Amino acid sequence: GENVEQHPSTLSVQEGDSAVIKCTYSDSASNYFPWYKQELGKRPQLIIDIRSNVGEKKDQRIAVTLNKTAKHFSLHITETQPEDSAVYFCAASRSTGRRALTFGSGTRLQVQP
Amino acid sequence: EAQVTQNPRYLITVTGKKLTVTCSQNMNHEYMSWYRQDPGLGLRQIYYSMNVEVTDKGDVPEGYKVSRKEKRNFPLILESPSPNQTSLYFCASSLAGGIGYEQYFGPGTRLTVT
User: Fold this and answer.
1) Which of B23, B52, B56, B79 is deepest in the core (most CB within 10 A)?
2) Mind listing the pLDDT tens digit for each residue in B88-102?
3) How near does any CA of chain A get to the CA of B39, in Å?
């Protein structure tokens, strides 16, 4: 099955700095890569996703890049704010066959004011 | 209001006592799934369902059962709970399985097995 590894497990940045979280996946058939944000005590919520036919996608201060050859994808947050503090999860799934969604182990991002 | 609901939200039980955690969604979603969340391990999928009467194992199905008799409901059954099933459980649903469909998560059920 799919295996998703996520790094780093914790990340502390100063407000206004950029944050980068990286994930690698093992199943070359995976073609959908969402990112979820989970605030303390809350449920995970989708913040951005990317499909395998796209190399980069942006939404305001958030961007995701995908390198299919190397099987890795990254989340970039620019101009970080205290409200960005949360746990971020990457995930991977395929659109045919087995439709399981495999998550990474999570990155706890702390934005220091 | 579009939502995924789970019950109970908190449960403390003893080893071996069968329990069921209910999950219901009102968005007419085809895909439903169960995850457990443990510190350092992230979210791990237990079972998922592509549609009524169609279920499949996720990454950690051992010790769990599910059923999908109606589109809106997807209960998680622990026939004989053990302490290693102590965890935070999330139910989720999406319009369909696979590419491009956001998973909407329920509020979570915190289960403790003593």
Assistant:
1) B23
2) 999 999 987 766 788
3) 9
